[in-house]
């Protein structure tokens, strides 16, 4: 059984690093706050009896040796960087629960066939440079030295920030794990949504991580006088856009997991008495299943074209970003379910709408995630909260899952 008091106490200690005036935590990558957080956690890792090191991209790693030190490693962990005025649990729960899991094993003399490493990944959030998941990209071998050019608001690039932290950007390839050297990656994370809470469940099994597809729709009609143009002589791109948005809502709602959001719109020229000539809006479309995502995208596109043709409005669609969704490994999902059954915890399977480090690791090893209940679904906010009991349950499920994977042939 993991030590829930110790886990909670460490979460509270970590939450004192990076507190900001606006409330909550601001702990950006390669800053003194992040350094202090890593130093604190490195201390916990040593107390846990782990071998501690930092790799070439700044990932903090604590290792518990396996009976076979050459066997592929089971990785557990999360991140400790935050968004501005973020919460205490998004990231830290997975890292500190990982340390707790390995400390419990060491205290109870539990040995595993495979080594287990707990990681605090560098820069998951992408807040400082607009380029996230730096640590997991590094481990997956997906990070190139010439990609370290994005700058923060003060004009400092990732490469410069790395140098200031004592890292050599030319050596980042050294962080890459070789194919076959990693057995699995499992992360405990807060849900950041309301699904578990609405079902009265403490923990959930993640089925996959939705990949965001971002599109920009541009609709062009004919601007005109609102008083002098009869209704049947208009080519109004805004009413066409309204129809397209309703179609997006309808098509996404037809699938159990798909979500579609129009979050940004501009109307040109934008006057009370002017029929718009041009409308631009964005679409964020997500699903954990690529085939379903493609199907929803295609039906939206078909309908949008039909709507615009009928209304004599010109439609162009620009691709802003397409990140493929990730399916969590069946084997890891089964291990998490068995862990829940062994603890007598009722659970459910749910997708993650938010992105996580496992998206970068999916070609390196099988990945899986455990969700812990978030209060009111609030995250990226000082009010973010997961109860002591839910943190402990999540950590206990992580313990059993990691133990089972690390002994699996
Ligand atoms: Zn997170």
Architecture blueprint of SSEs:
Blueprint: H1 4-14, H2 32-47, E1 51-54, E2 60-64, E3 73-79, H3 92-107, E4 116-121, H4 134-140, H5 158-164, E5 182-190, H6 195-199, E6 203-209, E7 213-220, E8 224-225, H7 237-253, E9 259-261, E10 265-268, E11 274-275, E12 278-286, H8 290-310, E13 314-322, E14 326-327, H9 330-343, E15 349-352, H10 358-361, E16 367-372, H11 388-407
Parallel strand pairs: 3-4, 3-5, 5-16, 6-15
Antiparallel strand pairs: 1-2, 2-4, 6-14, 6-16, 7-12, 7-13, 8-11, 9-12, 10-12
Helix pairs in contact: 1-3, 1-11, 3-11, 7-8, 9-11
The chain binds zinc ion.
Zinc ion (ZN) binds next to loops.
Notable characteristics:
34% helix; 11 helices; 2 domains; nine-stranded mixed β-sheet; binds zinc ion; Aminopeptidase; alpha+beta; 409 residues; five-stranded antiparallel β-sheet; Alpha-Beta Plaits
Overall description:
By secondary structure, the protein is of the alpha+beta class. It has two domains: 4-210 and 325-407, Aminopeptidase, CATH 3.40.630; 213-322, 2-Layer Sandwich (Alpha-Beta Plaits). The chain has helices spanning 4-14, 32-47, 92-107, 134-140, 158-164, 195-199, 237-253, 290-310, 330-343, 358-361, 388-407, and strands at 51-54, 60-64, 73-79, 116-121, 182-190, 203-209, 213-220, 224-225, 259-261, 265-268, 274-275, 278-286, 314-322, 326-327, 349-352, 367-372. The strands form three sheets. Strands 1, 2, 3, 4, 5, 6, 14, 15 and 16 form a nine-stranded mixed beta sheet that branches. A hairpin with a 5-residue loop joins strand 1 and strand 2. Helix 1 crosses helix 11, helix 7 (237-253) runs antiparallel to helix 8 (290-310) and helix 9 (330-343) packs across helix 11. It is elongated and about 85 Å long. The model has no long low-confidence stretch (mean pLDDT 96). Residues 79, 90-91, 124, 189 line the site of zinc ion. Zinc ion is lined by residues 79, 90-91, 124, 189.
